[in-house]
Design brief:
By secondary structure, this protein is mainly alpha-helical. The protein is built from 9 helices and no strands.
Length: 178
C-alpha cells in the first residue's frame, strides 16, 4: 500500500513537471504496480486509477504521438479488467476511429464486439461490430474467430457443443452408412 501511495505522489510530481519523458516514466511506474511478479494483471483499484490517469494524460497531451494508440489500447484493457465495460468500449472505439493504421485496430473492433456480446449481452451491437471487422479485415488472423462468433451469437457453450456433436454425428453417418 505504501508503494501505491508513493506512486500516486510521484505521478503528481511528474505531471506537474510535465514533459513527454516524465509522462512515459509515470506510465511505466504505474504499469509495474498493476502486474504481479508473473506479469499477470492484479486488481488494485488505486493502482488501476493511477494507470488510467497516466494513459489518459498522455493521450490527451500527445494525441498524434505514435505511442498514443498503444496506450489507449492498454487503457481499454485496464477498464475491462475492472469490469468498466462502457469505458473499455469507448476507449477501443477511440482506437479504431482515430488510429485506423494502428496494428491493433482490428483487435479493438473485435474486443468491442466481444465485450458487447459476452459482458453487456447486446447481441445486435456485437453482430454489428463483428460484421464491421469482417468487412474491413476479411483476411486478418482473427477473421475465422469473428465468423465463428457471428455464427454462434447468443448461444451458450453447451448449445455450441451440442451443435458440434450433432454436426459430427451427421458427418459420421454420411461416412459410414448402415
Amino acid at each position: 500500500m505504501r508503494l501505491v501511495i508513493l506512486l500516486v505522489c510521484l505521478s503528481a510530481l511528474l505531471f506537474s513537471c510535465g514533459g513527454k519523458g516524465a509522462m512515459i516514466k509515470n506510465i511505466e511506474a504505474a504499469e509495474k504496480v498493476l502486474v504481479d511478479e508473473k506479469g499477470k494483471f492484479k486488481i488494485d483499484e488505486t493502482a488501476a486509477a493511477q494507470t488510467i490517469e497516466a494513459y489518459k494524460a498522455y493521450a490527451d497531451k500527445y494525441p498524434k504521438d505514435a505511442a498514443t494508440p498503444g496506450y489507449l489500447f492498454k487503457l481499454a484493457d485496464v477498464h475491462r479488467g475492472l469490469q468498466d465495460f462502457d469505458s473499455a468500449i469507448a476507449t477501443w472505439e477511440k482506437v479504431y476511429s482515430n488510429y485506423p493504421d494502428f496494428e491493433k485496430t482490428p483487435h479493438a473492433i473485435f474486443l468491442s464486439g466481444f465485450t458487447y456480446e459476452n459482458d453487456k449481452k447486446d447481441i445486435a451491437k456485437a453482430k454489428e461490430l463483428y460484421n464491421k471487422f469482417l468487412q474491413k479485415y476479411p483476411k486478418h488472423d482473427l477473421a475465422d474467430d469473428v465468423q465463428f462468433s457471428i455464427d454462434h451469437l447468443g448461444m451458450t457453450p453447451e448449445q455450441i457443443i451440442k451443435q458440434f456433436d450433432m454436426k459430427k454425428a451427421a458427418e459420421d453417418s454420411l461416412k459410414n452408412p448402415s
